[in-house]
Amino acid sequence: MSWRTITYFGDSMLLIPTAILIALILPWKSNDRRTVWCWLLAFGLAGLVVSVSKILFMGFGIGSARFNFTGFSGHSAMSATFWPVMLWLLSGRLPAFWRGAAVTIGYMVPLLVGASRLVLHAHSKSEVASGLLLGFILSTLFLISQRNTQLKGFSLPQVSAALVLPLIIIGHGRIATTQNFLEHFSADIAGLERPWTRTDLLKQLQPGAQAFE
């Protein structure tokens, strides 16, 4: 499995449709009507915070040259919000040990996604670390809020049906265009000819100073 394949597990093209699928499934699988709203809040907040951080930088140059920070890593934040909850849902009726193992895997997948963003030079360490922290906080708060929730199990046909959409998306391999949209949107609202870039940010460093990767 290549790093580009791993990084796709944090791509919005995969996560947003699947997150909506989770929202559609939760009312049928949870005994608490608030579960679906808690999920939409957690996932939506992750996307909002990431988007705002990127707009602040690309539109107004608000970032940190010292820490090489241009906004939260969206792949890291969204995957850290998504995968622990996805594995929690799918393992809802398993014995405690196996459910814990599944949720643990849900926390490990975003770490691999974050590592892939570094290997592919898509983000700095500060952007990946902050993105993972944001996502893990949101997914953990969601799971804590659902600690007394009873989930119905999935039959094999139900699991297969639930995985059809993600597998189709992964097989297609199309990458989300959210970054391009945010670049144009940020430049438009700030009245710029082009959005701020990492190169522009690092020019602010004093001679002899070095940015953290």
Automatic annotation (TrEMBL):
Pfam families: PAP2 (PF01569). The chain crosses the membrane at residues 6-26, 38-60, 97-116, 128-145. InterPro entries: PAP2/HPO, PAP2/HPO_sf. Keywords: Membrane, Transmembrane, Transmembrane helix. Residues 15-143 form the Phosphatidic acid phosphatase type 2/haloperoxidase domain. SUPFAM superfamilies: Acid phosphatase/Vanadium-dependent haloperoxidase (SSF48317). It comes from the Bacteria. This is Phosphatidic acid phosphatase type 2/haloperoxidase domain-containing protein. It comes from Mixta theicola.
